[in-house]
């Protein structure tokens, strides 16, 4: 590995890492890594204020390939790690990365819990329809009846839809990008990071080694009836995903139904972009701060005990307030 880009220019991003990379040639993961690096650089964040948490799978190795704090966590458990880090040190920009198998199968419960909590973090879900690291078994996003080359039979399981699941779980920012459209993807990553709450960005990520059904030629295809490109941007079609602060229940319901409608589009036409953004919902840290003002500053920012080991955290008045 060198720190040169494909065009031979020197990569000057402070987030660029020269750590040896073992992803397969042509993997969509490279596009996501490049877009993430680009977004963080453009936001002028300092690498020592960014923590990237990886799940288990090919995508879970991302923290090694980025020059920031990086933590390789447990299968399906990336979101609790990331949430804990953000609550302990709110100054960090916290990003969790993981695959569709990691996040929608073993990690599905944590995905639901994270949406409900609305901690201010960003989750990048690499969606390639297979378990790439373990040789191409069907992942939860492969559709019923599909069969990729490593599978002896078509899958008998129904697909889990990450956008609908994220909406039902309470994520306050939901988007979808495409790994090889790095310009658009970097913009989406930046928007997701800037959103004050739990953001989930699913990324359509070709796996050239194990998923020959959804390769870059398929994604670059066109609608057979109209000739329009298969992938299209919601924002190019004036789709408005935002629920403003103070929005009425009717508007909220309309935005949720709109998101569900777009989540179910697949095949000839596939939307990418921002599906949903709820600006009326405060992140968990704001609620905790309001409740615990003066009692529990961010744990990473305070001494928790004196030299004798006695706790410096005073919770008595908080407990008094919460007693019934
Ligand atoms: Fe990428 Fe698939 Fe190779 Fe994993 S197995 S590195 S997802 S191409
Ligand atoms: Mg996968």
What does this protein structure show overall?
The protein is of the alpha/beta class. It folds into 2 domains: about 260 residues, Thiamin diphosphate (ThDP)-binding fold, Pyr/PP domains (Rossmann fold); about 35 residues, no CATH class. About 30% of the residues lie in helices and about 15% in strands. It contains 10 helices and 11 strands. The strands form 2 sheets. Strands 1, 2, 3, 4, 7, 8, 9, 10 and 11 form a 9-stranded mixed sheet that branches. Strands 5-6 form a two-stranded antiparallel sheet. Bound molecules: iron/sulfur cluster (SF4) and magnesium ion (MG). The site of iron/sulfur cluster has 12 residues, from loops.
Give the full name of the CATH homologous superfamily of the largest domain: Thiamin diphosphate (ThDP)-binding fold, Pyr/PP domains
For the record, give the distance between the C-alpha atoms at the N and C termini, rounded to a whole number: 61 Å
Element-by-element helix/strand order = HEEHEHHEEEHEHEHEEHEHH
Segments where pLDDT lies below 50 for 5+ residues? none
CATH architecture of the largest domain: 3-Layer(aba) Sandwich
| DSSP strand content | 15-25%
């Amino acid at each position: 590995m060198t720190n040169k880009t494909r065009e031979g220019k020197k990569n000057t991003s402070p987030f660029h890492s020269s750590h040896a990379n073992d992803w397969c040639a042509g993997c969509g993961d490279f596009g996501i890594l490049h877009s993430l690096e680009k977004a963080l650089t453009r936001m002028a964040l300092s690498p020592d204020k960014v923590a990237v948490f990886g799940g288990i799978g090919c995508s879970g190795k991302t923290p090694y390939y980025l020059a920031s704090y990086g933590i390789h966590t447990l299968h399906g458990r990336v979101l609790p790690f990331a949430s804990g880090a953000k609550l302990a040190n709110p100054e960090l920009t916290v990003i969790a990365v993981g695959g569709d198998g990691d996040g929608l199968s073993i990690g599905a419960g944590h995905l639901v819990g994270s949406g409900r909590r609305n901690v201010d973090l960003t989750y990048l879900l690499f969606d390639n329809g297979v378990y790439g690291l373990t040789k191409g078994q069907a992942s939860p996003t492969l559709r019923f009846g599909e069969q990729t080359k490593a599978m002896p039979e078509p899958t008998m399981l129904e697909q889990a839809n990450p956008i609908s699941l994220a909406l039902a779980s309470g994520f306050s920012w939901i988007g979808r990008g495409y790994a090889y459209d790095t310009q658009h993807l970097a913009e989406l990553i930046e928007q997701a990071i800037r959103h004050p709450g739990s953001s989930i960005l699913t990324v359509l990520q070709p796996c050239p080694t194990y998923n020959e059904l959804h390769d870059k030629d398929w994604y670059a295809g066109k609608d057979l009836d109209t000739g329009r490109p298969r992938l299209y941007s919601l924002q190019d079609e004036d789709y408005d995903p935002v629920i403003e602060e103070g929005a009425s229940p009717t508007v909220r319901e309309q935005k949720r139904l709109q998101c569900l409608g777009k989540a179910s589009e697949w095949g000839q036409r596939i939307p990418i972009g921002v599906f949903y953004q709820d600006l009326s919902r405060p992140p968990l840290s704001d609620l905790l701060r309001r409740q615990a003002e003066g009692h529990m500053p961010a744990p990473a920012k305070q001494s928790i005990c004196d030299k004798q080991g006695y706790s410096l955290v005073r919770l008595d008045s908080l407990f008094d307030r919460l007693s019934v």
